[in-house]
Amino acid sequence: MLESVFYWFIAVGLAFDLFGCIGLIRLPDVYNRAQAATKCVTLGTCLILTGLAGLAVTRGNGAMCVKALLCAAFILLTSPTGAHALVRGAYLSGLKLWEGSVEDAFADRAERIRNESSQPASPASPEEGVTHREEAETA
Predict the structure, then answer these.
(1) What is the distance between the alpha carbons of residues 66 and 117, in angstroms, rounded to a whole number?
(2) Which domain covers residue 40, as residue numbers?
(3) Is residue 138 part of a domain?
(4) Which of 49, 92, 98, 136 has the fewest Cβ atoms surrounding its Cβ within 10 A?
(5) Average pLDDT per 10 consecutive residues for the chain, totaling 139 residues
């Protein structure tokens, strides 16, 4: 009976992974595709690994259970972080949103980031521009 619950976890996880893969193919731009890949595939893979961990416990394989849960925790931590970094890099490099997008919440902040990175760094006062080497030479 308990094994069937874990098989359902695996089946639901496979369905989420399938929906994430369909989203990668069908959605219009990189931002929507990243959302589909991150949310669906992360949840699906974690459900599969949770089902695997449960099956491992019912069959007396504690080491496999621990490994599956560690893999699930690793995926939960790294997948959203990696997707965020990729999407932020795509946005800051100028990749446009899909024309059907309703809101661009990052536009103002991205413009400030672009302006800050394009301006050369200049000291506010002459004293701030002195390096440690120049201080050592004058001493």
Answers:
(1) 45
(2) 2-120
(3) no
(4) 136
(5) 94 96 90 89 96 96 96 95 90 79 73 74 55 55
